[in-house]
Specification:
The chain is an alpha+beta fold. The protein has helices at 2-37, 204-213, 236-254, 260-271; strands at 39-45, 60-66, 118-124, 140-147, 165-179, 194-200, 215-220, 291-297, 300-306. The protein has a five-stranded antiparallel β-sheet. It has a two-stranded antiparallel ribbon with strand order 1-2. A two-stranded antiparallel sheet has the order 8-9. Strand 8 (291-297) and strand 9 (300-306) form a beta hairpin. It starts with a helix and ends with a strand. Residues 181-185 have low confidence and may be disordered.
Length: 307
C-alpha cells in the first residue's frame, strides 16, 4: 500500500514539473513571437569598419531591431550592399545607414575621408616634431614652420637678407591618418613616423615650400579648441626685445607707489620754481656791561669781573 502511494506521488510530481516546464516554454515562444512582430530586420555590421572600406560578404548581416527604435535611414535589405564603400566608420553591431554609404562606384581608401576643397598631405615627423607619438587620427594640430635666413621673407628675401623666423604656418588642421610602427617590447606604441593631414587646397603650396626650405613640426591642440592665434612669428631680435620688455615691465611693477602726501609734495616741488634765499639783516649788538672789582692778594693786584 505504501509503495502504491509512493508511485502515485512521484507521478504527480512529474506531471507538475512537466506542466511548469511546458508553461515556461510556451511563455518564451509567446515573447519571441511578440518580439518578432514588434521588430524589423535591419542590416548591422559584424565588425568594426573604418571609413573608406568596402563592405565584404562577412562584414554585415540582417538582425532584428525594435521597430519603435528603428534609426532613420536603416538599410532593410542586404541586396546590392556588398562592395559599397563607407564614408563613415562603424562599430560592431551598429546599424548600417544609407547616409554612411558612399555612392555606387565610389573609390575606396583615404579619398572618402577628405572634405571638399581640402587636400591630404603627409609629413614625416620625429619623436620631437610629432609630439612624441601622441598624435592620433581625428586630433587637430597646428603646423609650425622654421624658415632659416633670407627664406623667411619669401622671394623678397632672396635679394635682401632677412633673419630666421619661426611662426605658425597653418592652424587647426585635422589629422586623417597616422603611420604607427608595431608595438615595442613594453607593449606601448612607438612614435609615429608619417602623419597625414587634411589642409585647405590654397595652403598646400605654402606647406610644401616651407617643408623644402626649412623645418616643419606639429603642435597638438586641446579637444574642442578652435582658437586661431594672431602672430607674425618670432625671430632672434623679437625674442630679445620681448625679454627686455618683460624685464622693464617687471621693474615698473615692483616700484613702490607714492602716497597722497608724497604725490602732493612732489607736485609742489616740480610745479613751483625754487626762489633764492634772501639775505637777512644783521643785528648790531651792544657790548654787555660788566661789574668789576680789584682784589689784592698779598703783593698782587688783579681785577675780577662778575657776569
Amino acid at each position: 500500500m505504501q509503495g502504491k502511494a509512493f508511485w502515485v506521488g512521484a507521478l504527480g510530481l512529474c506531471l507538475a514539473l512537466g506542466g511548469a516546464f511546458g508553461m515556461s516554454r510556451w511563455h518564451q515562444y509567446a515573447l519571441e513571437a511578440e518580439r518578432q512582430r514588434s521588430s524589423t530586420p535591419v542590416l548591422v555590421a559584424l565588425r568594426a569598419l573604418n571609413q573608406g572600406e568596402a563592405l565584404g560578404p562577412f562584414d554585415f548581416r540582417m538582425s532584428a531591431w525594435p521597430s519603435d527604435a528603428l534609426p532613420e535611414g536603416a538599410v532593410l535589405d542586404s541586396a546590392g550592399v556588398e562592395g559599397r564603400v563607407l564614408n563613415a566608420s562603424l562599430q560592431a553591431g551598429e546599424p548600417i545607414l544609407l547616409g554612411k554609404l558612399a555612392p555606387v562606384g565610389a573609390a575606396t581608401g583615404l579619398v572618402q575621408r577628405i572634405s571638399l576643397g581640402h587636400r591630404a598631405i603627409s609629413l614625416k615627423v620625429s619623436e620631437a616634431s610629432g609630439v612624441n607619438g601622441f598624435v592620433q587620427p581625428g586630433h587637430r594640430v597646428d603646423v609650425i614652420a622654421y624658415l632659416p635666413g633670407s627664406a623667411s621673407a619669401g622671394l623678397a628675401g632672396l635679394s635682401a637678407h632677412s633673419p630666421a623666423k619661426t611662426r605658425s604656418l597653418i592652424q587647426d588642421v585635422l589629422v586623417l591618418a597616422v603611420d604607427r610602427e608595431a608595438q615595442s617590447d613594453q607593449g606601448r606604441p612607438r612614435a609615429s613616423s608619417v602623419v597625414t593631414l587634411e589642409i585647405k587646397a590654397e595652403d598646400q603650396e605654402r606647406f610644401e615650400h616651407a617643408r623644402q626650405i626649412g623645418a616643419v613640426s606639429l603642435s597638438l591642440r586641446a579637444d574642442g579648441d578652435s582658437h586661431l592665434l594672431q602672430s607674425s612669428g618670432q625671430s632672434s631680435a623679437s625674442l630679445w626685445s620681448n625679454d627686455q620688455l618683460s624685464k622693464k615691465s617687471s621693474r615698473t611693477d615692483t616700484t613702490k607707489p607714492l602716497g597722497a602726501f608724497e604725490k602732493a609734495t612732489a607736485a609742489e616741488r616740480f610745479s613751483k620754481p625754487a626762489s633764492p634765499p634772501q639775505a637777512q639783516p644783521l643785528e648790531r649788538r651792544e657790548p654787555a656791561t660788566q661789574s668789576c672789582v680789584e682784589v689784592i692778594e698779598g703783593l698782587r693786584l688783579h681785577k675780577e669781573c662778575l657776569p
